[in-house]
Amino acid sequence: MSFSFKALLLTMCLALLPLAFGYWVNATARHAPTDARVAGRCTRYCEQHGCPHATAANSPAFFRLKPLYVATIKFLAMGGMGLYAAANIAFYVLLIPALLLWLTYGALRNMSTIRRLKQQPRS
Fold this sequence. Notes:
Blueprint: H1 3-28, H2 44-49, H3 60-76, H4 81-119
């Protein structure tokens, strides 16, 4: 088995790990996903309308990252709300994961190349 194949195989296993975790979280959740507003917990309503549960005391990161979140939504909606879903999928489901996979594969391939070069006798 070549080093680049091992790096590719490890990269693919790492890429499938978040999908498996997401499936597990959704399969074992106490509450089914809903778009309705629920007073005691966050739902998809919070994602779509801003979280009414978030306060500066219990979610300081939410308030620090809110300008970035709003800017991202505006950027993705530049083509109109009809293209928002397609832009969202292209950016978050295709572009960002592909970039991370490429970087991970490159790092693993370089690691194996460095390891192989260290084992070669010096001339």
